[in-house]
Amino acid sequence: MLDVADHGVQAFCFALCTVTGAGDLLMLVPMKVDYGVRTLVYLAQQDGPEFTSTSDIARAQHIPEPYLLRICSELQKSGLIESRRGPQGGHKLAKSSEDISVSDVVNSVDYSLAPVDCVEEPDGCRLSGACSQRELWSDVETMLLEHLSKVRISELKDQQMTMALAGAPVKTNF
Amino acid sequence: MLDVADHGVQAFCFALCTVTGAGDLLMLVPMKVDYGVRTLVYLAQQDGPEFTSTSDIARAQHIPEPYLLRICSELQKSGLIESRRGPQGGHKLAKSSEDISVSDVVNSVDYSLAPVDCVEEPDGCRLSGACSQRELWSDVETMLLEHLSKVRISELKDQQMTMALAGAPVKTNF
DNA sequence: CCATTCCTGACCCAAACGGTCGACTTTTAG
DNA sequence: CTAAAAGTCGACCGTTTGGGTCAGGAATGG
Q1: Residues 6+ apart with CB under 8 A from B97
Q2: What's the CA B69/C1' C18 distance, rounded, in angstroms?
Q3: Are B111 and A24 in contact (CB < 8 Å)?
Q4: Residue A88 domain flag
Q5: Cβ–Cβ contact A60 with B under 8 A
Q6: Residue A2 counted as domain residue
Q7: pTM for this structure?
Q8: Which domain does A26 fall in, by range?
Q9: pLDDT tens-digit profile of B98-127?
Q10: Partner of A132 at 20 to 30 A CA spacing, among A35, A90, A166, B89?
Q11: Which residues of chain A make contact with B8, given a CB cutoff of 8 A?
């Protein structure tokens, strides 16, 4: 009952961090980050020195392949994975899964978007005294980054493997 | 030099939490939240029992008035402010500024958006084993909410007033 | 030289956010 | 009682952008 038919559904499944009963949205994690992390975790599970093709990853993780292609490209550009073209080509981790944190993925995949930012550019928000908030939000953000930089891909991998053992069997036949 | 001419510029001034040099976006605070917080802080500064009109707030905080109108409505519905119509009408805090936290504003103003959420609805993301991330993100979120619920409007008010004293004088003439 | 597989840039679409408008109610001053 | 001030509410609009696609190009292995 866990097999996926269409990818359309997936599009609705943002890794949306909602909580507090009422269903209030607080922070949403872009799909890119979600896909990126999943890709890395999957690669971490493939322990051999072989390359894993995009289509392989896409199939296993139910990520739209052309999209994954581009994400992999970004992961590679920031040195998280290593890629090779041609037959038997694909991707593999560029370093140990213990040396990759979730914040690395965020930084790699969710690249700059803000031409204007009130945090770094104080003149950006030219409000009389509303700057007390700038400190607030910048605090929040550092806290977040700090936390994410402590979560390693290897951790997620381990967690996932134990979950896979205990939880819903996926395509095991024994 | 701190006076504002057009509100158009304001639209670009998301309270965008960017950091880490490279300018990576991690979490963006919607304008609504920003406006909401600023409104409450402003109301907190008006200590009298009088009501403050929307146009007053809008002018002081450089918030587009019709938009503020709607935000105030939301703040009122969630019991953060009290509103009265008619001449001499307006808004005022419904409770002490010490009893209002930033997370209250987030909850009030940034209302439900997610018909589907991977955090509460485990079946939402029907991936084989990717659920290890659900825990990660849900952790992050609780941490965030916890932090925000500790920041009180009164705090921001105090901070802002001291900033106003020390920093750029706004329309003081002495 | 050919098949495979990644890379890259251009492109598309729907949703959501920021913002606006106008009709309607309530309230209070006079 | 009446008019004006002010909030309420629903519908609407335009731009941005995030998720996703496509096609052509460049490596690489056989």
Answers
A1: B40, B41, B43, B44, B152, B153, B154, B157
A2: 13
A3: yes
A4: yes
A5: yes
A6: no
A7: 0.78
A8: 8-166
A9: 999 998 998 888 754 333 345 444 444 544
A10: B89
A11: none
